Backbone:
């Protein structure tokens, strides 16, 4: 494996380990019947967008300046709509209404959608190896979520589940339709523009919910959770994803979604809230095997080169 692919895989590991802890941390921060002292999902969306925009623009001041073509600025605006605004804002809204278990199950459709959309936008083939890897990873993730659902303690919601589904679809569109634009510039450049657009939209739409938060009632634990969401699951994770997009195909990038439930289970085991039995071991093995199979599947360029050599 070349150094570029190693960088891509390492970046996606970092992003998805962070996101694996994101759902339970977000749930602990959001206001609910069990947590009346939390913040509403719309305010948390504003914190994420504005906080990440400030961080990315600050970092960009210390890096060589990249000129972005006007057409690409427009494409980054659209990428922001699908990759950040619809994806993250609807996810937080849906998570506030439904259970983390439901949101984890719904997240398993992202690689399937990405594989299909990659054939539309990038003309990537759906091979037996790729589809088998996606299916195996999906089975492992669902099995892992199912055997861990006893600790959920949260009610499901059809409305919340629908919002999470739309969020997953928008992320799959982002990974495929805007890949060529994303890889044209450095991760900081693409993210600073995308989060600037997202921050403006979030403040304009969610200004009122932002002012309704009782900041005096927020506990240090809640502030810590907000800090994790803004700095880790938004700034750091979104800095890593474009690195993965640069060196790896969209379906491979999306397959790392299946790592998130594995991380969540390992975390709950480490803090003593769960145990790691044989079933979970098999599920985790299926996830990693599925990612490996998709990584080994042939891209369009490889198949075209083989056909040319045979000709």
Residues:
């Amino acid at each position: 494996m070349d150094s570029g692919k190693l960088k891509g895989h390492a970046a996606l590991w970092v992003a998805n380990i962070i996101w694996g802890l994101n759902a339970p941390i977000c749930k602990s921060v959001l206001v609910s019947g069990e947590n009346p002292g939390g913040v509403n999902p719309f305010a948390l969306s504003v914190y994420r967008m504005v906080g990440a925009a400030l961080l990315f623009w600050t970092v960009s001041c210390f890096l060589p300046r990249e000129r972005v073509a006007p057409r690409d600025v427009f494409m980054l605006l659209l990428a922001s709509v699908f990759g950040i605004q619809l994806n993250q804002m609807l996810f937080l809204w849906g998570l506030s209404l439904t259970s983390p278990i439901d949101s984890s199950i719904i997240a398993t459709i992202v690689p399937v959608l990405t594989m299909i959309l990659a054939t539309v936008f990038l003309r990537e083939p759906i091979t037996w190896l790729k589809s088998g890897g996606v299916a195996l990873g999906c089975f492992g993730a669902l099995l892992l979520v199912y055997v861990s659902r006893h600790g959920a303690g949260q009610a499901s919601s059809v409305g919340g589940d629908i919002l999470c589904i739309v969020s997953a679809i928008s992320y799959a569109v982002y990974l495929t339709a805007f890949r060529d634009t994303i890889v044209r510039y450095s991760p900081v450049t693409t993210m600073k523009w995308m989060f600037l657009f997202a921050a403006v939209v979030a403040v304009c739409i969610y200004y009122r919910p932002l002012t309704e938060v009782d900041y005096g009632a927020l506990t240090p634990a809640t502030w810590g959770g907000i800090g994790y969401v803004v700095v880790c699951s938004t700034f750091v994770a979104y800095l890593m994803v474009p690195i993965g997009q640069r060196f790896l195909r969209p379906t491979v990038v999306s397959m790392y979604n299946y790592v998130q439930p594995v991380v969540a289970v390992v975390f709950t085991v480490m803090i003593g809230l769960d145990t790691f039995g044989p079933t979970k071991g098999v599920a985790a093995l299926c996830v990693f095997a599925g990612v490996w199979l998709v990584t080994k599947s042939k891209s369009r360029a490889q198949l075209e080169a083989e056909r040319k050599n045979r000709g």
